[in-house]
Specification:
The protein has 361 residues and is of the alpha/beta class. It has helices spanning 17-24, 38-46, 54-70, 95-103, 130-136, 149-158, 167-187, 197-202, 204-215, 227-239, 247-258, 272-275, 278-294, 305-333, 337-355, and strands spanning 5-10, 30-32, 51-52, 76-78, 91-92, 106-108, 118-122, 142-146, 192-196. The chain has a 5-stranded parallel beta sheet, sandwiched between helices. The protein has a two-stranded antiparallel ribbon with strand order 3-5.
Length: 361
């Protein structure tokens, strides 16, 4: 698998990363995988290894199964089983090569290009670890997709999520992700292509041609794009039901992925103008103005000096929450791998308990 390229889609969630992945996945020269952050999860423990014991391979395998409970692999099959010979013998090679093998166990239900020269790994959390991915994969290319911060914030507070549905919290997270991605782009300009969700929606052919040129693959007619992806998603959603989720979350998952089977709705691009209150817009502009302007998203409000003081005070708590999350993530990154997997397993169990509204006794 040495000749296969691995490239990445980065950007904060709810910015069109899933839509872009579903479109690119139909190209015959591209394999996509469902969202899964196993590469970064095991990175610190495995990055320098060239020999992996079966017990270590089983840890990755267990993680992949656990992640499917957190976020189902809609449109894909994870084909590796404990009985597979791959897990019964040591693997000799770099961690990056091992990751390629695990990528290969994710099969698109209707459009798996087995011999495709490019794998696309889409994961919003990778945005925070681009330098690590580049150390692992020095020739990697990164497609950085952005979305108007107000639209992103609206999308996040309207969705059911384990994170707080707060404008301030989600604006601060948007800021943090953009700061990390823009810094990385500035340092590695030849390896990063920045695109806008708005351009992908309004001018898909032009945007996709930019991506195909960046990846150095042939252009592919937009008439062919998404058809098989829709078939895979519709088939999965028709059969999808999880005993681990109550009806509310089953419906949420179905809504999220069924949106990908519908024509792109350009009317939603500016829905933030009517669906966010004036106070929410002021707060969003106050927090995101700097990076918003760098990305071409202009603030719509004028904020007085007196108002800025009150907004500063209002955001202290959420800045603290995001800071704690960042410190927690950094600490977790360096934990021993067996402990991390055990901790992740308990995390999934807690989330399933919350999703089902079951209170602990």
């Amino acid at each position: 698998m040495g000749n296969i390229e691995v490239n990445y889609i980065i950007g904060i969630g709810r910015s069109g990363t899933t839509l872009l992945t579903s479109i690119l996945g139909v190209h015959p020269e591209i394999n996509t995988i469902p969202e899964n952050y196993f590469v970064i999860f095991f990175y610190n423990s495995f990055k320098n290894k060239t020999y992996f014991k079966p017990s270590e391979l089983l840890l990755i395998h267990e993680f992949n199964h656990l992640f499917n409970r957190l976020q189902p692999y809609i449109g894909y099959d994870y084909t590796l089983t404990k009985e597979d010979d791959f897990l019964k013998q040591p693997f000799m090679g770099s961690y990056h090569e091992l990751c390629k093998h695990f990528y290969n166990f994710f099969k698109h239900k209707t459009n798996n290009s087995v011999n495709a020269p490019i794998i696309i790994d889409k994961n919003p959390s990778s945005t925070l670890y681009c330098e690590k991915l580049l150390e692992l994969n020095p020739n990697a290319k990164f497609i950085f997709i952005t979305r108007d911060y107000r639209a992103n914030i609206l999308s996040r507070i309207e969705s059911i999520h384990i994170r707080p549905p707060s404008v301030a919290y989600n604006a601060i997270r948007w800021n943090y992700y953009m700061s990390k991605a823009l810094r990385f782009e500035n340092q590695h300009q030849s390896q990063v292509l920045k695109i806008k969700y708005e351009e992908l929606v309004n001018h898909p052919e032009n945007t996709l041609n930019q991506i195909f040129s960046f990846l150095k693959i042939e252009k592919y007619s937009t008439n062919n794009l998404q058809t098989n992806e829709k078939q895979a998603i519709v088939g999965d959603l028709t059969n999808y039901s999880s005993e681990l989720l109550n009806k509310k979350y089953n419906d949420l998952i179905k809504k999220k992925y069924s949106d990908l089977t519908k024509p792109i709705n350009t009317n939603r691009l500016d829905s933030w103008k009517t669906n966010l209150t004036h106070e929410q817009l002021i707060l969003s502009d106050y927090i995101c103005k700097k990076f918003g302007e760098k990305l071409g998203y202009k603030p719509q409000t004028n904020i007085t000096a007196h108002k800025k003081i009150s907004l500063f005070i209002k955001t202290i708590y959420f800045n603290f929450i995001v800071l704690i999350e960042r410190l927690k993530d950094k600490t977790t990154f360096y934990l021993p791998i067996k402990f991390k997997v055990k901790r992740f397993r308990k995390h999934i169990e807690r989330i399933e308990t919350v999703r089902n509204g079951i209170s602990k006794k």
